[in-house]
Amino acid sequence: MGGTHAAGGPRRAARVREKSSGGGQASIGRDNQRFLIYSQDGLGLGHLRRTTCIANEILRVLPGASVLTLSDSPLGRFFDSRPNHDFLKLPSIVKAGPGDWHALSLAMDFEEVSALRRELILSAARHFQPQVLLVDHMPHGAMGELVPALEELSKAGRTKFVLGLRDVLDSPQVIRERWRVEGAYDAIRRHYDLVLVYGSRELFDHAANYNLPSDIADKYRYCGYVCAPRRARYTRSIRAEYKKRSDTPTKLIVSMAGGGADGYATMRSLLDAVPLLEANIPRFRLVMITGPFMPEAHRQELQARAVGLPVRVRRTVADPFSYICAADAVVAMAGYNSTMEILRSGTPCIMVPRMGPSSEQKTRVRLFRSKGWVDYVDPTKVSGKRLAEAIRRALDRGKDRGASTGPDLEGLPRAVNHLRSLLPPSTPDPKLTSSAPL
């Protein structure tokens, strides 16, 4: 996770990478490639996962750049990242409802924590002096905490501002009201050069749904869905571990709860489904990946109930995508990143969206189900019986490795190309150009 062991340290390694990276990239000076990313994700993994994916792609195509992520995830630097990517941890806050926030860990009033976060963000922006600031999800930050940094960087005139948005944010009514009350429309109008939507306009039109004025809608660029370009590393070993060889093939069912803070009810119902599955499926194994934020008492209860059943309960795994690819069916919470990786794998899936506080997951799942891309169980009606029926349907469908239909999952390179386009022109390094053939 970051760092290098090349002789001479990280700076020499960066120069070596610049020289070996090819003509166009070599001519970009290292000091003028600074990307600052704001990622608010106090109780979950989705935003941090997506912004880390974008940071890794930036550094893949611009290996001499520097990326600093401001994040409040309690897990800090949880995902693998490339060299030249660092994190500044903000005090964690959590959203209880529209406009309703509180501190996650500190025994302080929200106003105090908010003021502390605001000063940390402003100081980081002032000293890091980014060429590009990518703001995830909130144009003005949580309760306006980004505004001082936006204003100072705007006055300096050296930074381009980009807002990155999921395909669906929340219900149109909620977003229209909160953005009006909190000044988000004004922040986009005054500060942002581009708004990147990690989704498809044909599926969900931001301009229409969120009542965007034409001058703001003109800044929008629809990239397609952002999905990490990863390969499954351990599929064969996972199959060898769980899919025992016999005359009767073993079906592998994988359940994933993302961060896991609100995944207990679904996984409890999955355990209720096991006897129903045993009555219809000759041989199967169920792997339940609870996620790091599931309360320990809930995880231990699931483990106790799983004793004697063809079930294994795990907190986290090294490569979730390998489990997705190894599975015959996946039952998952309907987070953005998990949904895209499952769709990329071709493994049939059953999605159970979050109950709240946002309607984002429920909206996306309904859109995807209408296209036939996912199956869906209403979280208010989740039960062992419903899950068992959905799993049997998924196993009957089988994997769809050669599917030509589905959402556009090539949003990552498009988003990074938009970010690169905002970098200022730089003077080629004479050492790299003087010996170039005429």
Question: How would you describe what is shown here?
Answer:
The protein has helices at 9-20, 23-26, 46-61, 110-128, 147-156, 172-182, 184-191, 206-209, 214-217, 235-242, 264-278, 296-306, 320-326, 336-345, 360-370, 384-397, 411-421, 430-433, and strands at residues 34-39, 66-71, 85-89, 93-97, 100-103, 132-136, 160-166, 194-198, 220-222, 251-256, 284-289, 311-314, 329-333, 349-352, 375-376. With 438 residues, the protein is α/β, with parallel strands linked by helices. The protein folds into 2 domains: 25-227 and 411-429, Rossmann fold (3-Layer(aba) Sandwich); 235-397, Rossmann fold. The chain has a 7-stranded parallel β-sheet, sandwiched between helices. Strands 12-11-10-13-14-15 form a 6-stranded parallel β-sheet, sandwiched between helices. Helix 10 (235-242) crosses helix 13 and helix 11 crosses helix 16. The longest helix is centred in the N-terminal third of the chain and has 19 residues, at 110-128. Residues 1-30 and 429-438 have low confidence and may be disordered.
> What is the assigned CATH homologous superfamily of the largest domain?
Glycogen Phosphorylase B
N-to-C terminal Cα separation, in Å? 41 Å
Total number of helical segments? Answer: 18
Summing up helix and strand content along with how strands pair, one would put the structural category as alpha/beta
Overall radius of gyration: 23 Å
CATH class of the largest domain: Alpha Beta
Instruction: Tell me the domain tally.
Output: 2
Counting DSSP E segments of at least 2 residues, the number of strands comes to 15
Mean pLDDT: 86
Strand order of the largest sheet: 3-2-1-6-7-8-9
CATH architecture of the largest domain: 3-Layer(aba) Sandwich
Strand content: 15-25%
